[in-house]
Amino acid sequence: MIKRIHIAFLSIGLVFFSAISSGFAVFYFMFYTLLAVLLASFVWTRLNLFGLSITASRRSGLSQVGDHVETKLLIKNENILPKVLLEVRDMDDLPGDSTGSLLNIKPLQTVTWSGKALLRKRGIYKLGPPKAYTSDLFDLFHFTKTFVGVNEITVHPATVHIPNFQLSHSIGLHPGTSRRSTQQITPSVSTIRDYVYGDALRRIHWPSTLRQSKLMVKEFDSDARGHTWIVLDMDHTVQSGEEIDNTEEKTVEVAASVANHLLNADVPVGVLAHGNKEYAVPPKRTSSAHTDIMSMLAIVKADGNKPLHQVLRQNHSLLGMSSALVIITPSTETSWLEVVRTSLSEVSRIALVFVDPHSFGLDGVLDMNRIFLSSSQAPTYVVRKGGNLGDELDYRNTSSVDMNPIIEGSSSS
User: Fold this and answer.
1) Which is more confidently placed, 127 or 265?
2) Which of 71, 46, 172, 163 lies closest to 125, judged by CA?
């Protein structure tokens, strides 16, 4: 694409060539006029940023999708010349519309500009640095001045209140109690043993230590049968949608909402996803469990190439220890359900959440008949673009799916 500055130089060159070829005074006059305009535009654009300083004040830390982040810029013109049509921007790293304004500042004037941006997508973003942009009246020259001041913000996924989400027992499975020792402290103490170098002091059982005159520590059960694992399908080949509104973001929103719901019920929750690498937060009963899960969900990306059935099969020993499993996927393939029935048969409660990719732009219609038949005893929730997550994750609605588009899709095949 040819820029205006290139056209300007070409025009000046043609006028100069015409002047020296013909000797006409009018061409010389045009040449000097165009050259003077070009030089004046350059000098004016440079001076429009000279003597300018910007100081930013922002709130950083943890936020959530749907919140607003605010910025306050203190802009000083320390020059005797005014600043005309000065564009000031901040927080350009955030998805969505940039935050900025067009200002005219008088000589030696200080102005304050405030703006806010909607946090539309989870992730870790840089706030700043503030930048000033300027151009001349003919849009020939463009200059940018970057100022110091960068903050970082972590945007957690949005969570929706889902009071009626629940897991149901599957037929033929075994809700027993696992008796596995673990290095983590759980509510279940299985035995007392001799102290070993490296054991934490808080594991010492003082009554036994006093009785036996040597250090004794508590051994804990894994208590895994009270845990719930949430598995997200982060295979990039099954994702659909736009930059912000897509199956990946909806999958993470569902996982965050389910985790928040279970944690509020004092259920230990673990989260597993496989993007470009494996992300896992183990179940635990600590005050940091919620923050750890949300921080993981803030950074996981659907850029993996491992199908869901491989993720489940490779982690079956870990997931099989839990008493409940929630699987969230936008995949229309159901081969992974065979892994659930075979390798994860010890899990007593399983819930499936399908994020309908067709509602996000994928061609075709979701065949719910096949999904319901394949998932058999597991409660199956369907989430769509623009839907009310509180209603879609209501167990009372799991069987009330609109079958009209399914019948149309089946009849056309």
Assistant:
1) 127
2) 71
Distance set, CA 25 to CA 13, 20, 311 (Å):
16, 10, 80
- Predicted structure pTM score: 0.76
Report how far residue 252's alpha carbon sits from residue 118's, in angstroms, rounded to the nearest whole number.
Answer: 19
Q: Of residues 220 and 40, which shows the higher confidence score?
A: 40
- Which tokens is 72 given? 């306050």
Cα 217 from Cα 192, distance rounded (Å): 6
Assess contact for 77 and 110: CB atoms under 8 A: yes
Between CA 162 and CA 266 the distance in angstroms is 15
43, amino acid identity: V
Residue 377 near residue 171 (C-beta atoms within 8 A) = yes
Determine contact, residues 175/169, Cβ cutoff 8 Å: yes
CA Rg value for the chain: 31
Show the DSSP H helices in 265-378 as ranges.
289-299, 308-314, 316-319, 336-342, 368-375
The region of weakest confidence among 75-79, 125-129, 197-201, 311-315 is 197-201
E strand intervals along 197-254: 216-221, 228-232
The closest of 237, 244, 243, 248 to 383, measured between CA atoms, is 248
For 103-119, how does the pLDDT look when each residue is reduced to its tens digit (9 = 90+)? 999 999 999 999 889 99
Q: Give SS3 for 69.
A: strand
pLDDT above 70 covers what percent of the chain? 84
pLDDT grade for 366, boundaries at 50, 70 and 90: low
Secondary structure class of 18 (helix, strand, coil): helix
Q: How far apart are CA 332 and CA 330, in angstroms?
A: 6
* Residue pair 325/347 in contact by the 8 Å Cβ criterion: yes
Q: Note the pLDDT of residue 181.
A: 46
Give the C-alpha separation, 253 to 158, whole Å: 6
Retrieve residue 90's tokens. Answer: 């901040």
Residue identified by tokens 């056309």 is: 412
